[in-house]
Amino acid sequence: MKNKPLLIIGGGGHAAALAEILIRQKKKIVGVVAPQITAEHIIFENIERFFNDDDILNFSPKDILLVNGIGSMPYKSFRETVYNRFRKLGYEFVTVIADSALVSDYSILESGVQIMNNSVVNIGSRIGENSLINTSVSIDHDCNIGENCHLAPGTTLSGQVIIEKNVHVATGVSVINNITIGHSTIVGVGANITKSIPSNSIVYGARSVIKGLGITDDN
Question: Contact, 12 vs 41, CB < 8 A?
């Protein structure tokens, strides 16, 4: 399965960053699927272009692996929607690990996980399917990251942190050990997380204010 050619979905900056990683690893990319190429990089110039997600259906799930090149942003579920659609149709998404990343042999990476440049995943940690671990993220030992999460550049997790599914952690967030962040939560840029966060929260600022009550918000 590892030697199958790859089809990248998405034409933005994240797709370009993935394409560069895969080209450096000498992986075969058969095409990029995007209505428009928004990343102004020459990386796509020599890759065949497909304009519609339905074009993927012209490739057998037995013959290719998909790369989810759609970036992850708060309140945007397109990355997850595309992933779920093609998984249900029998397609597999490749796990991408940049050569500059350091990933423990004793960690677990599920289907479609992406570990970008200079990131660290330490022993005993698990990353759920379709989660994106972006540039220079540090995940210490025994952390558990749910599916469809995004840890933006510069995120630091101490040991034994639990992040439930569909959580967006913005750039430069720091989380101390033994913290749980509930599902569908958004953690804003530069927040310092020293207490566990309920599900469906919005957290921001160095003092980790939770939108609503200033302390917690379970709505």
Answer: no
Measured CA to CA, the distance from residue 66 to residue 32 in angstroms comes to 10
Cβ–Cβ under 8 Å, residues 181 and 187: yes
Number of H helices, E strands in the chain: 2, 23
pLDDT per residue over 112-171, tens digit each? 999 999 999 999 999 999 999 999 999 999 999 999 999 999 999 999 999 999 999 999
Distance between CA atoms of 61 and 104, rounded to whole angstroms? 29
Question: Do 152 and 135 contact (CB within 8 A), yes or no?
Answer: no
Instruction: Count Cα neighbours of 63 within 13 Å in the Cβ-side half-sphere.
Output: 6
* Residue 82 tokens, joined: 């595309």
Cα distances from 183 to residues 72, 155, 162, 201, in angstroms, run 15, 17, 10, 9
Q: Given the DSSP bridges, would you call strands 209-210 and 138-139 parallel, antiparallel or unpaired?
A: unpaired
Distances (CA, A) of 33 to 17, 26, 44, 92: 15, 20, 11, 16
CA dist list (Å): 157 to 97, 119, 137, 179, 196 = 19, 12, 8, 9, 13
HSE value, Cβ hemisphere, 13 Å, CA-based, for 30:
14
**Residue 201 corresponds to which tokens in the numbers above?**
């929260």
The string over 102-118, giving b where at least 16 C-beta atoms fall within 10 Å of a residue's C-beta and e elsewhere, is ebeeebebbebbbbbbe
> H or E segment at 18?
helix 13-24
pTM: 0.92
